[in-house]
Write a structure and sequence with these properties.
The protein has 3 domains: 102 residues, no CATH class; 95 residues, Sandwich (Immunoglobulin-like); 339 residues, Endonuclease/exonuclease/phosphatase (Deoxyribonuclease I, Chain A, 4-Layer Sandwich), CATH 3.60.10. 24% of the residues lie in helices and 32% in strands. The longest helix is centred in the N-terminal third of the chain and has 29 residues. The strands form 8 sheets. It has a 7-stranded mixed β-sheet with strand order 3-2-1-7-6-4-5, with helices on one face. Strands 18-19-17-16-31-30 form a 6-stranded mixed β-sheet, with helices on one face. It is an alpha+beta fold and 572 residues long. 37% of the residues are buried. It holds the Pfam family Exo_endo_phos. This is 2',5'-phosphodiesterase 12. Its cofactor is Mg(2+).
Amino acid sequence: NVVYFRHLPGELQLQINLRYKNLEYGIDRDFNFSRSMDEDVSVWIARIKNNFQKEFEKKFNKKRKKKKDAAEQEGPTTEIPEISVQLLENNSAIHDRTFADILKGKNEKSKDLFLEIIKEKYEVSYNAPYVANLALPSSILANFFVYPSKLELQFAKRELSKFLWFRGKMPESKNEKMISWEQVHEGIIYKSQTDDIGHHLKLQCIPSNGQSEGAIAEYMSKCEVQAGPGNCPFESRHAFTSHKLCRRKFRVISYNILADLYADSEFTRKELFPYCPAYALNIDYRKQLYLKEIIGYNSDIICLQEVDAKIFVLDLVPMLDLHNFKGTFQMKGTSGEGIATFYDQNRFELVSKYGMTIGENIPKNPIFGDLWNKIKDNAKLIERITEISTALQVTLLKSRETENYLLIANIHLYFAPDADHIRLLQIGFSMAYIQHLYELTLQEQKLEKDKLSIIFCGDFNSVPQCGIYKLLTEKYVPEKFVDWLSNQEEAVKNVSLNQPFNIESACGCPKYTNFTVGFADCLDYIFYQTDNLTVEEVIPLPSEEELTAYTAIPSVVFPSDHVALVADLRWK
């Protein structure tokens, strides 16, 4: 018998949890209390007595009614016991003391406090490992990964806690208590099996901090395990990525995974992607697909765009951590989504990481001074470009197998149709920043140029005919280029751009990297510096037949409106 007391640092409230069972009265329930640390314990004891009195009266009246209905009123009826409650310290009742005073100096190993309820003692466990929140996703597909959609631990560590998976079939009576559970896996992530179809899953978590364990928490899935969508086009692509690369070769992914922030709205369901069933737009469905897809590419560097902050923390980090990936996240302003870069720790070590929201830095970052001075008098343009939350992320990695370094840039550019000039300026500022970091790295790491290479991934929201592709692959965009006139009120005048690096697109210019009913073209790229790197292989993209099988994407087999770019690169 245990009663759990929990007090988080800095909080005013003490959380108390007690599981009470009384077979005679059919009582089996949790009692939860939230009390001020400055409250006299006698006030809480009075509350417990009151709550228990109500519970016993409810069960007593229910039991008496049953006996009356069954005409069994002959013998005596069990009376409600006297509800006696006291908090004991070293077997002495505590009076006129606050929780703060009683718990001062206590920890999870303290064994001198007991709560006595109707002559039954419950040991007080203070700040023991605890599961504050546990849930499973609303969609579970056979042969895909399933893991907690919510997991909040207190005084415990995820990696030290135990996770047990069970499956069971709901009986015709729909009585969950009658489900017969069979254990199928141990570990935080379970790859569901074909045999699980039609079953509910249950996850048990035994929280631990390494020294002690807390109370078991469990959660039963609301849904049954369903059959998957059949063969997904990305599984055909996996045939080209069945093995990890090594030594001088490495594999890079760039993928806009479609943020739930944008997919989960009536406008999206009815206007943008009306051809996609609502269940297939649900994040719990889509993330199963793109996680299986990303992991199956056996890559070394992963650049993602439209990453919800919650997806980064709850899904990408724990899943990719199992495959030795470490990730960094850069939020787009306060939008709730951003860009993420992951790298295989077996192959690369993190040297430095950088990131910024471009718009707010344009007027104040000295690196941007030259270009800023050319546009600062264009009031309409400045008002717009400085308010945009486009973020740039740069990660400096060192190869563990060679002496080479990679400067990995990741971006998701502004989307508006009348903003070619905005996007071109954003890349102009980005390249100035990347050039600064490149030169800084050469200096700080004492490198020759043949040991440092730039890779620039992202959703550039720009087709190959626009200025961004020209600037990166030809090094120069002139003053009279058409992109500068994308919006007449904000037209950019007397500005040309140049950048010093030899850069090509690893995947060339595919016909489509984004494919919806309203728009389909090449918007995504893996740009790489050609001085020291060469393309070894490009993983074939889905065919037009695959993209149109369900009208367009996203669909039941494509989790995003973009396709992943995957390229194998090699140091020369």
